[in-house]
Amino acid sequence: MRPFVVAANWKMHKSPREAVDFLKGFLPKVSDRPKNREIIFFVPAVDLWVTQEVLRNSGVGWGAQNCHFEMKGAFTGETSPQVLAEMATPFCLVGHSERRALFHETDEETGKKVKALHQSRITPMLCVGETLSERESGKTNDVIVRQLKAGLRDRDPSQKVMIAYEPVWAIGTGKVATPEQANEAHVTLRKALIDIGGPEFATHTPILYGGSVKPENSAEIARQKEVDGFLVGGASLEIASFLPLCQTRKET
Ligand code: 13P
Question: I need a surface site. Which of 33, 35, 110, 149 has the fewest CB within 10 A?
Answer without folding.
Answer: 35
